[in-house]
């Protein structure tokens, strides 16, 4: 390059620089579009995961409620029923073998 460029050379250099700037701007525009669509996809997937987690949490709540109800029934109804049944069997065996009831 010479110290002083002629006007046509200077114009050519400016044109090349503007072309490069335009190319970079176009590449940046494409990149921004890709980033934006990737972000939208990530947000969509995040929402799906959040909804699944919420569904599973709700199912767990229902399951825990059912378990509590079942365990409550076992404690309040089934165990006393079993105790009465065992007492009847013991009374039946005592009666069969003529064993007097013991006092507690």
Write structural notes for this entry.
Helices cover 87% and strands 0% of the residues. The chain contains one helix and no strands. The chain is rod-shaped and about 130 Å long. The mean pLDDT is 92. Keywords: Coiled coil.
List the helices and strands and how they pair.
Layout: H1 7-96
- How large is the share of residues in beta strands? under 5%
- Rg from alpha-carbon coordinates: 42 Å
Largest sheet: none
Low-confidence stretches: none
Shape: rod-shaped
The whole-number mean of residue pLDDT values reads 92
Structural class: mainly alpha
Tally of helical segments: 1
The proportion of residues forming helix, as a percent range, comes to over 70%
Keywords: Coiled coil
Question: What descriptors fit this protein?
Answer:
104 residues; mainly alpha; 1 helix; 0% strand
Concise overview:
This protein is mainly alpha-helical and 104 residues long. The chain is 87% helix and 0% strand. It has one helix spanning 7-96.
């Amino acid at each position: 390059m010479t110290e002083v460029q002629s006007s046509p050379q200077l114009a050519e250099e400016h044109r090349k620089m503007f072309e490069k700037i335009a190319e970079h701007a176009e590449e940046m525009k494409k990149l921004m579009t890709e980033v934006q669509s990737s972000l939208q996809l990530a947000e969509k997937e995040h929402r799906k995961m959040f909804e699944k987690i919420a569904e599973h949490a709700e199912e767990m709540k229902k399951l825990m409620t059912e378990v509590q109800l079942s365990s409550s029934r076992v404690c309040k109804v089934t165990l006393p029923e079993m105790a009465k049944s065992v007492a009847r069997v013991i009374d039946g065996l005592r009666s069969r073998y003529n064993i007097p009831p013991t006092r507690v």
